[in-house]
Design brief:
Helix content of chain B: 25-40%
Number of strands of chain A: 8
Structural class of chain B: alpha/beta
CATH topology of chain A: Rossmann fold
CATH class of the largest domain in chain B: Alpha Beta
Radius of gyration of chain B: 20 Å
Largest interface: A-B, 52 and 53 residues
CATH architecture of the largest domain in chain B: 3-Layer(aba) Sandwich
Order of helices and strands of chain B: EHEHEHEHHEHEHEEEEHEEHEHEHH
Number of helices of chain A: 13
Bound molecules: thiamine diphosphate
Largest sheet of chain B: 7 strands, mixed
Shape of chain A: globular
Number of strands of chain B: 14
Oligomer: heterodimer
Radius of gyration of chain A: 21 Å
Number of helices of chain B: 12
CATH superfamily of chain A: Thiamin diphosphate (ThDP)-binding fold, Pyr/PP domains
Number of domains of chain A: 1
Strand content of chain A: 5-15%
CATH architecture of chain A: 3-Layer(aba) Sandwich
Chain lengths: 332, 327
């Protein structure tokens, strides 16, 4: 959790310095969800998330410098600079990507769950989204299907109370999100998304069910984000008192005070050391990212297709009449 | 006459039409609370001026467009904002199968007077957030498609779109919101379906629209210092597409380039080229050329994004190539 917090703060700093561009959605305040959920899963369980994905990438153990380099748009990034912040992925770690179209990844996650069953594995899929994503058609179509086929997928809804700037009660007629799954007869739970152990236990329970073939589940994690929706958000719409009050319940200090210190599991000196180590690790990641070269221009046409066919060059560009072929760029 | 931004011009159009016609309502995601009004601040402050008529919707584009279609059938005039055109894909069925079809399929008895506003374009947001589907939209009978390039056109065209009795897809551009231009303080309308000459020149015709007009005008300025005068035609409306000015221009310059931001194959440029050669083949000294975006999913990396979309220097290179008879 500390790594995620420090990483996100560094991202904010580097966005301000224009090292990172585009949409940058930070995870401050929500760390306990990714950390708790992934602690309950096996490393070969599949993970699919929305665009607020850095926390999941780090909790899944992706290479920290590579994640930072991706945010910088550099060749050393997790996808070589093609995707940026919203599309971190590492298939070797069963992280199938962050996705930026609200609701778009829900069917994909469910299809992965089908593949797991089809191939007779006992893997489960964790599919993460925000509560604002529970109003779109694919949410309902996918929940129904997943339940109908008893597929091993856990829909994890991070209810941070706002979809961009729109408050939950303004965008959803049902404000206890887990209830939406009940319409599909799906197992549904609600947990404190700021309590890392509660998150771990809930996901462990639901994963066990799914692994045994008892079907999908929806888990609502009640939380709050400490920063704006993205770095483009002036965050004028949330009352300051509300934000400040929420910050009083910080998942990191809660775990530290209520669990680790209380049970004498850690000493202050160790806490300080973790903080220092993590800061050094993140600083090194930023330096790696800065030193990583921009992707080569000749990679533009790479990987557009997995297989070439007639009239398509191996690089994916289309074969044009001879007069134009010589200038197969922006003009010709 | 004051210089205002493209964003402000759009807001004034909305404000005037909201004030003029009580049937006009404005719906969309994050258009009220977020940042004071809208992901790109076009609706900022309007909710206070028109209580109850500017409303935040759930993230559900298919329903946003569909509910607006129904409301329009019932006599309301909804203007919906789709946060970016990439999300219009979620609403494609409603746009193509319902909005565009109703009037004809029901024998002219049903009208769908609605506007879908949405920004297209790029800005380091990677492949799923950097697109423009103007060519797809403009291929659909039953839709009208507008893509203004200047604040003046944006205001006059949006007002006409709101008053139009058909579904109008109104494409804005992320890179244009902050651009400035003269806009009269007094009311005016610009008719849909009419192109506009943005610069008079005798050497070469450029047909373009949207953000590429801005790049073309920069190119034209530079080329003028070399003695090359571009005749620049801004299509403004993509469906119906008015090519009368472009054809007349080609008859004068005998050379033409179509400049578009989108993917070249099967793009709008292809339509313009085909129409120009049908109408003015014997006037052409060279095949009509195209400047277009590379046919790749837009990468996030700064250098790759820059290489993917056309800028003024690409227009200049194409003009030089054509003037040197390289085509
Ligand atoms: C189909 C679609 N519509 C709109 C958007 C723009 N958008 C991106 S994130 C977002 C809010 C999502 O809120 P929520 O699901 O609660 O997730 P959170 O960001 O709070 O984690 C919106 C409207 C989008 N990416 N995709």
């Amino acid at each position: 959790m500390v790594l995620i917090r420090v990483f996100e703060d560094k991202c904010a700093e580097m966005y301000a310095k224009a090292k990172i561009a585009g949409f940058l959605h930070l995870y401050n305040g929500q760390e306990a969800i990714a950390v708790g959920a992934l602690a309950a899963l096996r490393p070969d369980d599949d993970l699919v998330t929305h665009y607020r994905d850095h926390g999941y990438a780090l909790a899944r153990g992706l290479d920290v410098p590579a994640v930072m380099a991706e945010l910088y748009g550099r060749s050393g990034g997790t996808t070589g600079g093609r995707g940026g912040s919203m599309h971190i992925a590492d298939v070797s770690k069963h992280f199938w990507g962050g996705y930026a179209i609200v609701g778009g990844h829900l069917p994909l996650a469910t299809g992965l769950a089908y593949a797991a069953v089809h191939h007779k594995t006992d893997r489960v899929v964790l599919c993460v989204m925000g509560e604002g994503s529970t109003n779109i058609g694919t949410f309902h179509a996918t929940l129904n299907w997943a339940q109908l086929w008893r597929l091993p997928v856990i829909f994890l809804v991070e209810n941070n109370q706002y979809a961009m700037g729109t408050a939950l009660s303004v965008h959803s007629s049902v404000t206890e999100i887990y209830k939406k799954a009940l319409a599909y007869d799906m197992c549904a739970e609600r947990a404190d998304g700021k309590d890392v152990l509660a998150m771990r236990d809930a996901v462990a329970r639901l994963a066990e069910r799914a692994r045994k073939g008892e079907g999908p589940a929806l888990l609502e994690a009640v939380t709050y984000r400490f920063r704006g929706h993205s770095m483009a958000d002036s965050d004028v719409q949330r009352p300051r008192e509300e934000v400040n009050e929420q910050k009083q319940r910080d998942p990191i200090t809660m775990f530290l005070n209520d669990v680790l210190f209380k049970q004498n599991l850690i000493a202050q000196a160790e806490v300080d050391q973790i903080q220092k180590d993590v800061e050094a690790e993140v600083e090194a990641a930023a330096q790696f990212a800065d030193a990583s070269p921009e992707p080569e221009l000749n990679t533009l046409y790479k990987d557009i297709y997995a297989q070439s066919v007639e009239n398509m060059q191996v690089d994916g560009s289309l074969i044009r009449p001879a007069t134009v072929l010589s200038r197969n760029g922006k003009h010709g | 006459m004051a210089e205002i931004t493209y964003r402000e011009a759009l807001k004034r159009a909305l404000r005037e039409e909201l004030a003029r016609d009580p049937e006009v309502v404005v719906w969309g995601e994050d258009i009220v609370a977020y940042g004071g009004g809208g992901a790109y601040a076009v609706t900022a402050g309007l909710a206070k001026e028109f209580p109850g008529r500017i409303r935040d919707t759930p993230i559900a584009e298919e329903a946003i467009v569909g509910v607006a279609i129904g409301a329009a059938m019932g006599g309301v005039r909804p203007v919906v904002e789709l946060m970016t055109i990439n999300f219009a894909l979620v609403a494609w069925d409603q746009i193509v199968n319902h909005a565009a079809k109703q009037h004809h399929m029901f024998n002219g008895t049903i009208n769908v007077p609605m506007v879908m506003r949405s920004p297209a374009g790029f800005g380091r947001t990677a492949a799923t957030h950097s697109q423009n589907f103007d060519a797809w939209l403009a291929s659909v009978p039953g839709l009208k498609v507008v893509e203004p390039a200047t604040p003046y056109d944006a205001k006059g065209l949006l007002k006409s779109a709101i008053r139009d009795n058909d579904p109008v897809f109104f494409i804005e551009h992320l890179q244009l919101y902050g651009t400035r231009g003269e806009v009269p303080d007094t009311e005016y309308l610009i008719p849909l379906g009419v192109s506009d000459r943005k610069r008079e020149g005798k050497h070469l015709t450029v047909v373009t629209w949207g953000r590429m007009l801005v790049e073309t005008m920069k190119a034209a300025q530079k080329l003028a210092t070399e003695g090359i005068e571009l005749d620049v035609i801004d299509l403004r409306t993509l469906r119906p597409m008015d090519l009368s000015l472009a054809i007349e221009s080609v008859k004068k310059t005998n050379r033409a380039i179509v400049v578009e931001e989108g993917w070249r194959s099967i793009g709008l440029g292809a339509e313009v080229v085909a129409s120009l050669q049908e109408a003015a083949f014997h006037y052409l000294d060279a095949p009509v050329a195209r400047v277009a975006g590379l046919e790749v999913p837009m990468p996030y990396a700064r250098n790759l994004e820059r290489a993917t979309v056309p800028f003024a220097d690409d227009v200049i290179a194409a003009v030089h190539a054509m003037m040197a008879n390289q085509y």
